[in-house]
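Morning, I've got a small favour to ask if you have a moment. I'm working through a protein record and want to make sense of it properly. The fold is given in discrete form, as structure tokens running alongside the sequence. Can you walk me through what the tokens say about the fold? Thanks so much in advance, here it is:
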Amino acid sequence: MSCTVSTARTIRSVCVFCSSSDTTRAEIRATAADLGTCIGKREMRLVYGGSDMGLMGITARAALAAGAEVLGIIPRRLADKVRSLDITEEIIVETMHERKAAMFAESDVFIALPGGIGTLEETMEMLTWLQLGYSSKPVGILNADGYYDLLLQFLDSMVAEQTLKPFHREMIQVAGQAGTLLDTLAAAGVSYRDKW
């Protein structure tokens, strides 16, 4: 884990999309903790879904332990049902649309840890905004223990079928280590701003 490497672009806030499941594999849980630790050691802020459950809680606790500020953004309907952490700041919104808009406004880059339908939906929306030029904020996949291998193969097949342009496929930054992905996202942000 290389959490102390300086980044090419100043990343102040990292939004992490991930699972709230408490039953993920140990290797995936360790990667989530590494990401939270890297965010703290690099003096960044974590923006996440606001829950104490699953990878959300693991990432947030590790970030807090490493000295990071942590912002949780959660819809009221979920806030009434899930455990929460003693984090730096919490924003309660009414809808999932408002949640994503707030996460976008508060973040410089986006990272997908392993997750389910919600994680995929959030990540793909950020990628769509990037693809269409509504955003210049980089998006990355932290491919913990090969979790996203099949998704990445499918994206490559979309390129082969010519339903996804190679340039848009290349916008998706992928790494297996937290520090490496943060460095890659920092460098990508510069080229995206120039491109758009």
Summary: The domain at 15-195 is CATH 3.40.50.450 (Rossmann fold).
